[in-house]
Structure formats: C-alpha cells, structure tokens
Design brief:
The structure is a homohexamer. By secondary structure, chain A is mostly helical. Helix content of chain A is 66%, strand content 0%. The longest helix of chain A is centred in the last third of the chain and has 23 residues.
C-alpha cells in the first residue's frame, strides 16, 4: 500500500481537487492514477509535479508518442514497475503499436548493453565527439 | 586509455577488417569509433555486437532519428559519458535539432524524477494498468 | 520466498542467536527483520553486516533521523522495494513526520532529475567546484 | 564541452537574465553554475527547473543542510561527477563539516550494499512493513 | 501479466518454434522460460537475443558456473527480480552451492558499497591504474 | 582532487598507519591505493571498510580471481571509472587473461540488456523459479 495512502477525489481539499480537475481535463479522462493520489498528501509537490509533467509532455519539437516512448525507455532502464505499466498504457493511448513497442525495447536493451561494454573497456571519447 | 588498447584498420585481422568495412559501408563514413576499435580485441564480440546494433537500429516501425534519441535517453539515464557523446553526434547526424535535444532531455529528467517518487511513495499499480 | 529461506530464532545456531540478541538489545525490540533471517545462512556475513550497520547508523555528527532519511533516499534512488518499506518504518520510528517524508521525496526526485540533465547536457565541472 | 555550450550573462536573453538574477539573489552570490548556463539554451526548462529547485530546496520541515546532504547522497548513488562536486560545495556552504561528510558517505555506502543483499537474497517484505 | 502476453509452443509460428526447439536442445530441458515466450512476439528479437545468449554463455575462457554467477551479480546490482530468480536457478543448475552463493552476494554488496565511497569522495584514479 | 585530499603514509596517524601496514602486508605490496588514502580522513570507516574487504575477498568457496571478476562486473554495471580501473588491475594480478576479460565483459553486457528486456516486457516470474 502507498506509504501515506491514496486521496480520492471526494476526500480531496479544494487545492488538490483543482489539480485533479486539470489532470482530467488535460488528459480527457475521468480517471486519476494512483501516482497523483499518493502525491496529493503534499499538495505543493502535486501541483509542481503535475505542472512540470504537463509542460514537458506537451507536443512540441517532439510529438506525444515519441515523448511517451522515451518516458517508457527511461522507466525500463530504471526498472520501475509502476512507471513501465502506466507509461506502456500511455504510449499505447498515444498510438504505439506492438511492433513499435518491440523495436523500442530492442533499442533500450542494446543501449544498456553497449553502455557497459564502453565503460568496462574504458574506451576514451573520440576527439570528434567532443563538441 | 582503453583497457586492451585500440586496433587500427591497418593492424586489424581480416575478420576484424570485414566488420570495419561493413560499419563504414552501412554508415556511409570512413570513420570507425573507438568503441569498435576497443571491442576488436574480441572479434566474436565485435561481430555479434555490430550485427545486433545494425539490426536493431535499422529503420522499421520506428525511424532512425527516434531510435537514436531513445539510445541517447538510455545513455543519459545511465550517465555513460562516452555513449552520450557518441549518440548525441549520431542523433544530430540523423537530424536531431537543438530544440528536439532540449525536449528529449526534459522528458528524460522528468521520467527519472517521477520513477523515484513512485517508488519512494510505494504506489501500487492501478488495476487498469495491469495488462 | 527468500533464496535460502529464513532462519527463525528457535532454529538458529548459537553464533546466529548472539547476533539476533544484539540486534534486539540495540534496537530495543523483540523483532528480527526478514533481512537478517535471510542473511543468517552465512553467519560471517550476518555478523559483519550487522556490526557495520550498527556502527554506521549510530548517532554521531549526524543524528539517527538524518541517517535513516539518507538511507531511505538511497533506497528510493535504487528503487529497492524491501529497503524502502523497512527504512520508511525505521525513519518513522526515529521521528520522521509525514511532512518530512514528503520533502525528502521531493529532494530525491529533483536530484534524480538534475543528475540526468547535467549528464545529458555534458556540463563541465566549474573550476571552483574542483576541490 | 557542454553539448550546446554555455550562455554567459552578457549574452543572455532578457528571459534568461531574469532567471540568472533570481538565482543570484536567492543564493546571495554573483556566480552562476555551468549547469544553469547549459540549460539556458532552453529557457522554458531553465525557468521550470530553477523554480522547482528553489521550491524544493527551501527550508521547511527539513533544514537546508539536511536537504543538501540528501542531494549529495542521491548524486553519489548515481555517481554523477558534476553533481557530487557542486553539491559537496553547496552542502559545505550550508554548514556540512568534514565529519558529517564522512558519516554521510558511510551511510550511502552501507545502503548501497544492503540494497543489493536484500535483492539478491530475494527477501520478502515483512508483514509489519507493509503499511 | 507480460505486456504482450506469452506465446506457448503450440501457438507459435514455425520461426518461433525453431528457436524454442534450439533452446530446449541446447539446455537439455523441455521447459521454455516466460522470458522467451514474451519476447516471441518479436521473432527477430527472439532469435537475435537467443543466439547472443547462447554464444556468450557457452563455456570458453570462463566456465559456465562462473558466467552464471556473473550474470546473477549483474542482475542483483540492477535489482531485476525476474533475472535474480531465473539466474539463481541457472547458477544452481550449473553447480553453485549455497556457500558460493553467499560469498557471491558478499562481493556484490561490497562492490556496490565501495563504488559509491570512491565516487562520493571524488577519488582520482591512481597513475598506475591508467593502462 | 579527492574531496578531503589524500593522506600519505608519512602524514598518517598511528591508527591509520596500522591499517596501511595491514593492507601492504595482506596484499604483498608497498603501494596504497588512493581510495584508502582518501578514506583515511575517517579512520573508523577506513578500518571497517578494509576489514570487510579483506574478509569478503579472501579465497573461500570462490577463488580470488572469480571474486575480482565479480567485483569488476559490478563496477562495470555501475559504471564507476575508478573501480573499473583499479579492479581491472586487481583481476589481472589475480590471473585474469585478456580472453577472460573479454568474455566477462560480454556476459556483463548481455545481462544488462536482458535485465531491461525482462522488465520492459513485464515478464512474470515462472512458478518454478519461485524458490
């Protein structure tokens, strides 16, 4: 169970409700993830984290699907079970196909492998990669 | 310096030269990264790793730019200096703009933050995210 | 289930019992965590690890609460489920309030984010930070 | 060198200058770290990250020194060279003594060790630690 | 449940069945792990990964037991629950005793501790360790 | 430079000198690594860490070479530059050949790859791997 428990909409303070409302409006859903309900015990963190996520994940130079796949790639590298589950769902909602998922995982796996080969062999950075 | 040193093209065995040639042809370059030159001390690993990278990074359901940005996202999460330098170069070659780079970093940073918030608050996976 | 199972007090060798007794006395409790019961299959590791934990976690220049919160911060960064659960309990026992917990998590999250921003942007260490 | 280079105060846009000014005022210094100068290429990220850091690191239920030491503990666990250097400086400025530093490192080391022992032995979470 | 589900032998395509058959023959077992059944949704990744694992884990300059213990050491450091469980089983099948397991864990724990002490104290590499 | 600097033998307190002497005797060398010289600012940590390393790395059910290679595998996974450099030297001193090093790196790379594939595909632990 979450350390401080989950705060349901009905039990939320007006400050928390305002964030919940914005999440639901922005994401066009009537569902609030457990993550936000857990974070709601600290309304300042809830608001700051949500505002940051909303700003960072908005389509810009990168589209929403790419951003969700990058989020999933990081969560997989960190092996965060909750994040993998929730961002797999989010990436699918943004249009990720099974084939895209499989290719994404292949890149994530390969990068994790070569990151260690490079470190273990103590390879020096090529002069041309020094910006 | 690399643990086993770097093997230059002129000093390479025919087996290693064949991989070097394929890298240069596939990437349309006459440059071989230090990574491959370090790995060349183990020709079997060199061939296997190169064949895997070539297969995984080929455009498919995901294009080359997306794959390079995911590679960079993983390398940044793992904080692998060499990999960040070389895959920043590769992503730029594949077309990554400064603005795309900045948005990529923002997503990587945010994912690393929320991965820990979720874990630290011990948030349970929502029923609907269990596939 | 733990790889080698758990050794209960009643089934423990005198050597293991002596460590269990010291844990209970030092912590003023009659409870032994599963961690120690799992480690008890290797009495040498059990003793060494317990002696180290006891020495490191004793109040000194840092008080017990600070030390427990640092332990929790590290465990959260590593996303170790068991460690987060047990050290949340330990930190609370040492006096951590819900508000302190929430601020702790906020710092942990922020540090994990900026660690990657710094690495990904390949920021050089400022001259004045080189000791 | 930083991927996008560093933006000095004199060359900064008014939007970036405003953040730099706030950093210098808040920290009572005339020095801007390379981190902010690198991030300044993305003024939105610069502002968002600085506002978050300022909010999170402000003394509250935890004092500034504790927060800086937690930041250092996370950076050490992640092995982020820049972050270790800059937050060691920041923690010292907030009052960290050499003895506190040494005890902090001892806790960080111990937590990283036991995190793996727990995971490797596959220890189940004690019923009483499930909140 | 696995993101894309598991593909059982009876439901597998000839391409996937061929890999399953090779796994069973090479490992002298009639059992296919869930890992392969999950990966089978991407037959190219399944084949590539299996071929790589088969090549890398074959006895050579290092014997099978040593390789399995190294695999377990890495999985423990990364805290991958599935991998710890499956490679503990594999290492035991290769002959790992309880005493070897306990010593392995002790080394893994110690290395994770000193890795952070070195990083946190910002220790410079000794001249003689620069190859 | 190391955060607190390095303490040379000539400048060491009797307590630190005693540890230095034991390191040199145990390792049959007249050289003290920078790691110990950095840690010497906290004589309690120096003694505890050295005693632990000495106990854990002593040949037992696993020989010295295997233990050094496991240490290197962990350090490579964590990408600790100092530790990779010093434990590559230690493993070589214990007899590691270039071929063993290359096979070790191949296993480390592969494990880091499959750890993420397993996590990303959300593969459930096989019933038979639950001990």
């Amino acid at each position: 169970m979450a350390t401080l428990g989950l705060i349901e909409y009905a039990d939320a303070s007006p400050e928390v409700k305002a964030v919940y409302d914005d999440i639901m409006t922005s994401r066009q859903t009537d569902y609030i993830n457990n993550f936000w309900k857990a974070l709601a015990h600290d309304p300042g963190s809830l608001r700051r984290t949500w505002e940051s996520v909303k700003q960072v994940m908005a389509p810009g130079a990168l589209d929403s699907l790419t951003k969700e796949m990058v989020y999933l790639a990081v969560s997989t590298t960190n092996q965060c079970g909750y994040c993998i589950a929730s961002h797999t769902a989010a990436a699918r909602k943004a249009g990720m196909s099974d084939k895209q998922f499989a290719e994404l995982m292949a890149v994530v796996g390969m990068a994790n492998e070569t990151n260690r080969l490079v470190s273990g062999y103590q390879v020096e950075i090529d002069e041309r990669f020094r910006t």
